[in-house]
Design brief:
heterodimer, A: 174 residues, 6 helices, B: 95 residues, mainly beta, 3-stranded antiparallel beta sheet
Chain lengths: 174, 95
């Protein structure tokens, strides 16, 4: 529980820190594309870890959904940046997300059974909450290209569904 | 089964467009938004087509019944064979 809470808190600090740092210079489209793509890939990796460890039907169904949806959304993102000739640019927010996700995966790897399921799903709730918040308050408002903004808005609706799905699974695990 | 007898179809689905096909039913319902529930009426013998215009895959699933995967930019149809309430949900997005 402590581990989970601290990880969620770390994410929030990272993203709000990034938002603050970007207060003067908001993220550029190449940076926004990189952050959104990275966030999706990290959730796919988390789901793959869950699929390798969990035997719970609901948890596995959720994880399979994450792999399917984030793969599909990121394919759209790659197609769009190719069309727009935008090269995604690595940045502090992407790096911080990647580091935090690696730390979380390491923590989750120590757990098994129901302990793993609960921790994975709790982190998914926190992760989607944080990333969705960042999309709403920073990434979508900062996006310059209308097509990029549109894809982020479509993604947000899908990811809000993920947050609700994770909350439902979390409630069932209790 | 009687002509004029309507089947309430409760759509608990998102990212789809629902379009009753031929069969004498003039009702139609278009749906492209996410997250909100929808409901349409159709009659026995009607074909209901779901067009997935979303950017992710969905399913048309009924507990203990059918389970059809619908990839993006594809559609799936079913013909209603009897009167009754059909509750759909998407297995990938069950909220």
């Amino acid at each position: 529980m402590l581990v989970r809470l601290s990880t969620a808190t770390a994410f929030i600090c990272i993203l709000s820190g990034a938002a603050l740092a970007q207060g003067a210079a908001k993220p550029t489209d190449p940076q926004i594309a990189h952050i959104a793509y990275t966030a999706g890939q990290l959730d796919i990796e988390a789901a793959k870890q869950a699929l390798s460890k969990s035997t719970n039907t609901d948890v596995r169904a959720f994880a399979e959904g994450m792999v399917g949806d984030h793969t599909a959304v990121n394919k759209q993102a790659l197609d769009l940046v190719t069309k727009l000739k935008v090269t995604p640019e690595d940045n502090d927010t992407s790096r911080a997300l990647t580091k935090a996700a690696a730390d979380e995966r390491a923590e989750l790897s120590k757990l098994s059974g129901t302990d793993f399921d609960k921790a994975y799903i709790a982190n998914e709730v926190a992760y989607h909450k944080t990333v969705n918040g960042a999309l709403e308050t920073t990434l979508i408002p900062s996006a310059g290209n209308p097509e990029l903004k549109g894809l982020l808005q479509t993604g947000l609706k899908i990811f809000q569904g993920h947050e609700q799905h994770a909350e439902k699974v979390a409630a069932e695990l209790k | 089964m009687l002509p004029g007898r309507y089947l309430p179809l409760i759509m608990l689905w998102h990212g789809h467009e629902f379009r009753p096909g031929t069969g004498g039913n003039n009702s139609s319902y278009n749906r492209q938004d996410h997250l909100l529930a929808a409901e349409i009426n159709a009659r026995a013998g009607d074909m209901v087509t779901s067009i997935n215009k979303d950017i992710v895959a969905h399913t048309a699933t009924v507990h203990g019944g059918f389970d059809v995967a619908i990839e993006m930019n594809t559609s799936a149809s079913l013909v209603l064979t009897k009167a009754g309430i059909v509750e759909y949900y998407c297995r990938f997005h069950p909220t």
